[in-house]
Amino acid sequence: MQQITMGQAVRQALAEEMQRDPNVFLAGEGIGVGIHESPVMPTFGLLREFGPDRVKDTPVSEAAIAGLAVGASVLGLRPVVEVMFNPFFTLASDQIVNHAAKLRYLSGGKSSFPMVVRVKTGAGFGAGCQHSHNLEAWAAHCPGLKVVMPGTAADAKGLLKSAIRDDNPVVFIEDMGLYFFPTPVPEGEYTIPIGVADIKRPGRDVTVVTWSKMLGVAFKAAAILSKEGIEVEILDLRTLLPLDKEAIITSLKKTGRLVILHEATRTGGFGGEIAALAVDEAFSYLKAPVKRVTGPDIPVPFSPPLEQFYIPDEHQLVEAVKSVVL
Amino acid sequence: MENKKKIELYRSMLLIRHFEEKLTELCRIERKLPGMVILCTGQEAVAAGTCAALEKDDVIISNHRSHGHLLAKGAEPNTVMAEIFGKKTGCNKGKSGTLHIAVPEVNALCTTTVVGGGIPIAVGTAFAQQYKKRRQVTVCFFGNGAADEGSFHESLNMAALWNLPVIFVCENNVYSGAQRMEEHTKVKDIAARAAGYAMPGVVVDGNDAEAVFKATTEARLRCLAGEGPTLIECKTYRWRGHGEADHQAYQPKDEIARWMERCPVKKIERELLAAGAISNQEISELEESIAKIVEDAVRFAEESPWPAPLEALDDVYV
Ligand SMILES: Cc1ncc(C[n+]2csc(CCOP(=O)(O)OP(=O)(O)O)c2C)c(N)n1
């Protein structure tokens, strides 16, 4: 298996899909010539490889970039557009939320909008709250969209290929914290289905439901807890919408305990949806209250000790798990 | 322009230059400064010239390249530096860092890193100034890239429609990220867009602080006379990369060199010397005093404590 970063895995997925399908094109700010030219970045070298007709550097115009994707997709192209940082999703959101998500419905099922919006996200860069703000729950609140948030390079590659082939608009969120560490990725062609969660670590005692970069935190906590005889099952959602309810319920049948971990802020976060699902559809299996470990309800602060305080860590997760086991 | 005022302009630019060059130095020391540091070296005349035409009560709205704007408006170098370091004594208690420094004490009410995000807010502060019948104006600083955002167009239209006392200062430093102006828009002058909203659009040499000062003074008088907004485009150049981590691979070396020859600080210095308004001796003394202000600011920042983690929870709501 090759060892590559998530940025490189995304790059492979983009390049492979562009080779496979001439209707796939890319657009975004600095995706061709950027201010940080680096082989770990997801669109590195694609302009050279595919040329300026298929790799479009755009003006700083998020609404137009998202609208470009909506319009191009209804005529059969397969746009993959990039939102540089998750907070700028708000500028693109009219086209994504009010149009991409709804136009098929409004057409009575006659039109389709096969587009992907790649969004870079995550705290930990000292960039402050206008660059770091996980808004996946916003996107997941829009029927008509699919929302994918991979936690490993291998998943990112397979899921992005599926997203590009999907006939629905997909919001594909990449945590930049995963761009810098190589992990194993299968060689050759493969896809991973959207809407299927993955047990990343089996365990009998507690189900930890998580996604994206927090998967790493879950693994660290699981290692600590294992030494104390507590076996955590890590369920990586990978896709938030459509939600793999089956996988969550199946795991809860086994463990009877649920802790949800995400970096986004707590109130209105997607963790609440998972908790509600557990109470609605798996109540009889639950042996303990459902717990959440999340970012606190504040904007992501700049100063290093404050930002560190914001990001959930393994110690918080260990404590939460113990509180439902002991 | 009176010599006294011109020396003030010169001093203001020197402070910005020293401040930014110190930050470049600090960025070379690993892990000294958190986050991405974005500088306005070479663009000092825009900030200094504009702010010299304003009164203390006038409002400025700034963008990610803000240090010059803030210092020229009178922000304290110590607390701005401490904010850039992320310290408790920073003017925003470490919440904001270099990218979004607000200094309400000098009416620098919003610095936003969302490109174009400040432009509608400037419409709002100008509306409040008009509503309360204050003899005040708002200046909104933004880059050539920001003029491609929808917010720019919506804001200019509304400001013109309601004759709001706002001056839109487009700091055209040739680049928007790695894109040159001709790669992101077809217009040659951002100022040409003013015509589409029936407001005056003025192009000035953004490396000539006096010219910027004059254009701003005129625009301010128009605002105060109830004649509405002006768009001023200051043509200048970004000496550094987008941020300090940017290696400027896309910026031709000879282009940088050409613009460095047109250094705005040297320009005003030459003019003052030629007019006999300042001596070489006085220049060295001034430089020394400014260097000391910046050294003191760095020392203040370095010696300041970090905020305690739980302070992260403060200041979300009133
Ligand atoms: C809404 C939004 N989109 C994209 C970015 C990323 N970004 C930061 S600065 C910048 C270029 C802005 O260029 P310009 O407005 O000309 O200002 P300059 O950096 O040249 O001073 C971009 C694209 C952002 N901060 N906000």
Automatic annotation (TrEMBL), chain A:
One of its GO terms (molecular function) is pyruvate dehydrogenase (acetyl-transferring) activity. Residues 4-181 form the Transketolase-like pyrimidine-binding domain. Its EC number is 1.2.4.1. Keywords: Oxidoreductase, Pyruvate, Thiamine pyrophosphate. The keyword Oxidoreductase applies. Its cofactor is thiamine diphosphate. InterPro entries: THDP-binding, Transketo_C/PFOR_II, Transketolase-like_Pyr-bd, Transketolase_C. Transmembrane segments: none annotated. PANTHER family: PYRUVATE DEHYDROGENASE E1 COMPONENT BETA SUBUNIT, PYRUVATE DEHYDROGENASE E1 COMPONENT SUBUNIT BETA. This is Pyruvate dehydrogenase E1 component subunit beta. It comes from Pelotomaculum propionicicum.
Automatic annotation (TrEMBL), chain B:
One of its GO terms (biological process) is pyruvate decarboxylation to acetyl-CoA. Keywords: Oxidoreductase, Thiamine pyrophosphate. Residues 12-309 form the Dehydrogenase E1 component domain. It is an enzyme of class 1 (oxidoreductase). Its cofactor is thiamine diphosphate. It holds the Pfam family E1_dh. Its EC number is 1.1.1.-. One of its GO terms (molecular function) is pyruvate dehydrogenase (acetyl-transferring) activity. Gene3D superfamilies: 3.40.50.970. CDD domains: TPP_E1_PDC_ADC_BCADC. It comes from the Bacteria. This is Acetoin:2,6-dichlorophenolindophenol oxidoreductase subunit alpha. It comes from Pelotomaculum propionicicum. The lineage of its organism: Bacteria, Bacillati, Bacillota, Clostridia, Eubacteriales.
